[in-house]
Amino acid sequence: MTATSTLADLAGLLLSGKIEVVDLTAPLGPSTPLIKLPPDFAVDTPKIEIHKISQYDKAGPFWAWNWLKLGEHSGTHFDAPQHWITGKDYPDGSTDTIPVGHFVAPVNVIDCSAQAAADSDFLLTAAGVRAWEAEHGAIGKGEWVLMRTDWDSRNGDEATFLNADASGPHSPGPTVDCIEYILERGAIGWGTQCIGTDAGSAGGMQPPFPAHNLVHKANRYGLASLCNLSKLPAKGAILIAAPLKIEKGTGSPIRALALVPKG
Length: 263
Fold this sequence. Notes:
By secondary structure, this protein is an alpha/beta fold. Helix content is 20%, strand content 26%.
């Protein structure tokens, strides 16, 4: 079997509907939930704004278009290594320099939805990942690892999505040893359905915010605010997650897609 015949087979499967394209992306607009930083740090990402330039009117009689105001890490988004201090020195660590082949890769989906429903602060450990591998197969080098929590069901309401109280945010995520383990396995990146790639309690871990700290230290990538992971199998899907080619970009909103075999 040649690469050409393999691509031809893929095209045929897509056209026949035997491979489904699943949208893993939340709508991007003024009501999109955005992360809130502690008051001692920089100002928060501004709310997304969509401004009309013209809409078949005097400003443009035959066309409609808009201009946008938004942060790099808004909505369903990609975290590049240069987003975090541990990855700041990688010359191929910004959205305009990452090798494009890294934007398409096999994906492992670890279902933690029941645990997250029972405990908003649920943490996935290395032991939990190994147990998943024993059932579904090993995580391969160059593959994505996604934590399914069905947290996207909260995405329509910012307060519910952020789930913060006086003690801080409460959302599921990985432990330090979880991230260490998937990096040892050679994962190309880590993704979640929450506002960021770390758990709400990650600021108190050592090191703090391990999904950011360790993933980007390894010149790997993060995905946040993913949707519809319930439509993906544990293994067997292909993830397409391509950020905008922003000059020296630390991240970008994306249209994340998965190719999923039917049946």
